[in-house]
């Protein structure tokens, strides 16, 4: 009889990360965090004697993940002597020609679905039947309905469905019609792929990524734990799921308003006062400067000046405008080379290049005394 | 600007040579080899030095070597020129390592170098910088060298820019150069930061290197992954085989273990036993020669001896018996002879004969009782009558035949009874007659007396007795003789046997002595020991063989009975072994592959960071380039607009000289094209005759100098060598005109120029070298 189980996935182990500076340093640390989350999950499973762990795809970030990483996972699972580990593959670690799952030996407590049709494994001691479908290529535009329709549940068992895909009408990543699959009467549906964890009533859940992977991924991360009980009156299974958070460095995006009166040191000060020193040294920060800046101030090196006060910082000045009325200037110099020049600058196609070109030119004209 | 005085302190062939110039036209006259070009080059050198332009490091021009004086200790000079009413003195040392330029106000003597822009590469101030003069522009406009027609490469832009600067006629001050310089500076500084950013060039280089490294790393790790997959495949197969084998051999393994254990114990036991045996064998080695065959031989000899002894014993007994018999016979003889009471048989016999002669006839009648005989005869008669009666009268119920037999029997019995009775009565009558005849004679009496006998009976008895004794004695005598013969035979035989035995015994002793024993029993004991020794040896060797086998077994996986249980039970051992080896090989290869190769993931991340840095820089650089581009386009626009004036101006000059060509076109690269008046076609200067080409360049320089910088002098070195007379005259006329506005310094070796100038009525200063 199944009492409790863990639902997790989307670890993206071995993932390369993008950082604007010292990519390999931050990337390495980030990968360590992924491993820490994985190890935490394993430790929890051991300590709490969880009998079943569901991995809903994308344990590995790529089919070309390092063999030592695959070994590490296999070895960790092998230590879970009293736990069944059931795995489906996802779009990142699909079980294709170069499958990471072929590269090492898995212990006998690990079951890996290896087909892109629905199959099941019945675990007698837990009276639990797990249905799952794995990815064997990197794109599925349709849900394998025919295969799904053949499923006949034995309701004396606890029935779990595992899918890695997107709840949507259309998707390149296995579109899932939630209503449709819920209709089958599974006791629990363990989904993977979407990195934001979410538990819906009726025993459907996205486990989410146990560690945020980029600035777009905010909020708490971890894995899901479900408790299974039998309702004595109706004799039905009752599943209650909860979230077990795993601490990790967060991604924070902070917007800072700049005004033309701000000096360079004002700007630095504003950036530093956005967070406590402790948090600054803990999390990943992206500071977005918005508003208007004195055209004589250059923010080219602001990142370098902030760097030592943060664990990681990147700055975004794309929404910051120089405080200068270009149109008016052009109008005033309509018939002279200055007007000609400024107009030509305004015609530069690439907006980022245009912006920089204007800033540089204005700076140069100011320093040469052409503009006062 | 007017060049006033040259002082060639040490330059080329000149030493402490001073040359003065005047405003207007200066005609510098000198024969060949007089040093005209040297002087011209001196002027250039005083202004710019002899350095290659556009270098990041100071590099000397070839002219440096060309004018280096013979005794290379000094290489210097000075030049005084006047500009804007101010007299400036340049003092330059050309000498490598000591090269320097000092700029003085010639009136006050004050060093005014710092008023001029400083060049960090040549580490000198630039005196003509304020006039917008670079060595390139100077050589293309101011300085017209001998037969040097080509525009100096790399200077077109400068010239164009210089020209365009002068053409900015708009009301707004637009310092294009200044803005461009600012942007250029900006561009240079992009990506330059002491902290985290590297210079963009370095970043790009690093990224390119990393891309190569990434490719290598990815290839290596792809191979590693491929190997790993193979390893896993092998491991799976091995596991399967092992499982099969396990299933097959579980019992065998247990047995095998038991057997091995037994083998070990057995080995231990055997080793112990053999160690004991080996001691014993060593000790028993003296009995090695003892053997049962010999023993049998010895025993045969012994039994021979015994047999001989037996025979001898027997003979000895016989001899003793003989002695005994002889003794007994003699004693018996004695006793027999005693019964004769000292009489000899012969005497007795004679006497008896004599007695009997006397008695002849008188016989003794013997009377015997016949009463019993008579009684039996009567019984027989009675019985016979009875039988006869019974049978005749058939008193008994018997058969006829039986009655007949009884009748016969009865008759016979009656006959016998009658005979018996008659015979008995006759006998009794005869006895009575013998007793009546007994009576003795004297001779007979004497004989009786002699022998102490009473009657004839006694004599008879005595005689009989003596006769018997006599025969006994005779028999005894015969016996004694026989025994004596036997005795002597026995004695002879005994001696022969004795000798035989002694020989054999000697031989036996010799044989025993050989084995160092005294008796056969001892030898037999030795034989037993020898046999034990043999047995021990056999056992020892057997043990050794067993040990060997056991050790082999233990080492080879054989059981004690020699079966290859292990192999039999694990039929795929070889495959396992080879897969194990293959795995080891692949793992080794993987180690080698990943050794020293960065992780692709990390390399990729570094590349990404560099990419983002480069991207930022790239945008900045693009922005700078875009600005510079725009600046250039605007300038070009200016050029295109003002070019017709330049073309017109130069065309006019050319027309004046040639009286033929008048249209020219200067393109953006400052190349001059000439319009052929006949058909209006453009011709490159190079396509014209040598003289005309010279004239085109003269016109170009003249005209350019006119428009770019009217302050600078115009210096010409033998420009008219290839001119015809008319064109030379026209050109000289132009120079004379020009000298009204600019100082002109014309170097020539031909007096023709002076003559023509005179003819033109031009004023000039003649300088002789």
TrEMBL record, chain A:
Q: Which residues form a coiled coil?
A: none
Instruction: Give one GO molecular function term.
Output: exonuclease activity
What InterPro entries does the record tag this protein with? Calcineurin-like_PHP (IPR004843), DNA_Repair-Maintenance_Comp (IPR050535), Metallo-depent_PP-like (IPR029052), Mre11_N (IPR041796)
* Alphabetical keyword list: Exonuclease, Hydrolase, Nuclease
Calcineurin-like phosphoesterase domain: residues covered: 4-197
- For this protein, the parts annotated as crossing the membrane are none
Q: What is the protein's given name?
A: DNA repair exonuclease
From TrEMBL, chain B:
Query: What stretch or stretches form a coiled coil here?
Result: 200-318
Domain of life of the source: Bacteria
What are the residue boundaries of the YhaN AAA domain, all occurrences included? 1-56
| Transmembrane feature ranges | 375-399, 405-426
Question: What keywords appear on the UniProt entry?
Answer: Coiled coil, Membrane, Transmembrane, Transmembrane helix
Query: Is-annotated flag, keyword Transmembrane helix?
Result: yes
Q: What is this protein called?
A: AAA family ATPase
What organism does the record attribute this protein to?
Acetobacterium fimetarium
